[in-house]
Specification:
This protein is of the alpha+beta class and about 375 residues long. The protein contains 13 helices and 8 strands. The strands form 2 sheets. It has a 5-stranded antiparallel beta sheet with strand order 4-3-2-1-5. It has a 3-stranded antiparallel beta sheet with strand order 6-8-7, covered by helices on one side. The longest helix is centred in the N-terminal third of the chain and has 35 residues. The chain is elongated. About 5% of the residues have low confidence.
Length: about 375
């Protein structure tokens, strides 16, 4: 006996009830049967893939919702064939099933996109020291995925609208961006569309990537998230700076990790002219070699300027990442000042003043006369 025969038999047993109630019972049984069949089948498949790798287990778990929805639609289709429906009711149910099928296709497309991007990004690790390639691919994939998800949503909504005769033109306008409705929607969504196209441009040219260190609007932080319309910048003090995607196309900003994560840090110190520059240079080299923060690439101590009372020393030191550069600069400052205080206090800035002896004698005479 087929499923169709079972539904016919159930309808025959319920012949004493009103037609609308029979239809409701058949639909409820169809939904319950669909959920039961899906639960049993999903449990079997889950047990089969439990010993496989993460990809297959994630694939099964991600398809739980779409497969259950598909089975329910299929079961309702069987029940609709035998349910005693009026022509209007049959047309309404047909419309509902069509909408459900369109939504199912959009859901499947979105799930397939998520699975593909997850599998693709498994090859790249953001927590590596040299993560330039990983940041490039992760940024590009995430931006394009959000753009494609938005396109899938627009196509799904447009297809649903096109299934209704009364609003079919709006669905066509949404797809073709034509007509008065399309023009109004385009004007209303201009900021959104502007950021979407900026997101596509960012994904292709990549002036910023996930985890890039940026200096924007006087704030320093790392790119935490790139959505289809805005960028989340995690600042050094854990605040979040939210900027539209179009900002990074239209305005200048500093990217400290554009080509590589290594940076050169600068320490400026102002000392007396008696400061032993050679000794300081040797001490800075000793400090750099003793700390794991220094990457061994750049180290320099130079007198870059003379002031009225002090001379300016610039210390350059490199590190693999911007946070390590910041910590290295602080460590060099602290240890160098401590060294100068203990061994060369004369190198620290002092204020010199030459007394006017003539003025002192006149002041003494005036005091003596007053006494």
């Amino acid at each position: 006996m087929t499923l169709h025969d079972i539904f016919i038999a159930i309808g025959g047993y319920l012949g004493f009830l009103p037609n609308w109630l029979i239809s409701l019972i058949l639909f409820a049984l169809a939904i319950a049967l669909g959920i039961f069949v899906h639960r049993v089948a999903f449990a079997i498949v889950t047990r089969i893939v439990s010993g496989m790798d993460l990809f297959w287990r994630s694939l099964v778990s991600r398809t739980h919702g779409p497969t259950r929805f598909a089975i329910i639609i299929l079961a309702l289709g069987f029940a609709a064939r035998v349910a005693p429906l009026t022509p209007d009711q049959a047309e309404l149910l047909k419309q509902v099933l069509l909408i459900g099928f369109i939504v199912l296709l959009g859901w499947i497309a979105k799930t397939a996109l998520h699975i593909w991007t997850t599998v693709y990004l498994r090859r790249f690790k953001l927590d590596a020291d040299d993560n330039l390639l990983a940041r490039k691919h992760v940024t590009q994939t995430r931006i394009l995925r959000r753009v494609v998800e938005l396109v899938i949503l627009l196509l799904t909504v447009a297809s649903v609208l096109m299934s209704f005769d009364g609003v079919r033109q709006y669905g066509v306008s949404l797809l073709a961006s034509a007509g008065a409705a399309g023009i109004v929607a385009g004007l209303a969504l201009q900021p959104l569309l502007k950021n979407i196209f900026a997101g596509i441009q960012l994904a292709v040219t990549q002036p910023i990537r996930i985890d890039d260190a940026l200096l924007v609007e006087g704030e320093w932080g790392n790119v935490e998230e790139i959505t289809s319309t805005y960028v989340v910048l995690r600042l050094w003090d854990w605040r979040r700076l939210i900027l539209p995607l179009s900002y990074f196309i239209e305005k200048p900003f500093q990217n400290w990790t554009r080509e590589e994560s290594a940076l050169i840090g600068t320490v400026m110190i102002y000392l007396d002219y008696r400061a032993p520059v050679t000794v300081i240079r040797e001490k800075v080299a000793e400090i750099a070699k003793a700390t794991p923060l220094w990457d061994g690439r750049v180290l320099a101590v130079q007198v870059t300027d003379f002031r009225q009372n002090t001379m300016e020393l610039r210390i350059l030191a490199s590190a693999r990442t911007s946070p390590r550069v910041f910590d290295l600069r602080c460590e060099v400052r602290e240890k160098l000042v401590d060294f100068l205080q203990r061994h060369h206090p004369e190198a620290l800035p002092v204020v010199r003043a030459e007394a006017d002896k003539t003025g002192e004698r006149n002041t003494a005479r005036a005091l003596a006369s007053a006494g």
